[in-house]
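Hi V.,

Quick status before I head out on leave. The structure for the redesign project is tokenized and pasted below; the design run finished overnight.
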């Protein structure tokens, strides 16, 4: 029974730590008039649109959150200590693909 409890505790700890971790990235491009944003991550570029308007969001800001899945996510701007919502349209793109996404709008 003790082994089962220990295994269950270990499993829960691993699950909590894996969901609590967030991808980090650096804002490579942001245009407030179009809401378009490109974030450079370790896995490539994440492209999308800012859904609400943060007070400050600049190129070079370090951000964290779920940057590697489609849909709307809360992203945390570590540089300016604020959150913003982002629709992620694509991720794990090369630099060329991110520029193409920006030019085509998708």
């Amino acid at each position: 029974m003790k082994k089962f409890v220990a295994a269950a505790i270990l499993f829960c700890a691993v699950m909590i730590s894996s969901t609590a971790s967030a991808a980090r990235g650096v804002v490579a491009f942001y245009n407030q008039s179009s809401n378009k944003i490109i974030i450079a991550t370790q896995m490539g570029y994440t492209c999308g649109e800012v859904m609400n308007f943060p007070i400050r969001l600049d190129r070079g800001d370090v951000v964290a959150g779920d940057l590697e899945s489609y849909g709307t996510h809360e992203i945390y701007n570590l540089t300016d200590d604020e959150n913003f919502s982002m629709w992620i349209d694509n991720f794990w793109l090369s630099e060329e693909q991110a520029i193409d996404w920006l030019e085509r709008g998708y």
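Above is the designed sequence. The domain at 23-104 is CATH 2.40.50 (OB fold (Dihydrolipoamide Acetyltransferase, E2P)).

G. will cover questions while I'm gone.

Best,
W.
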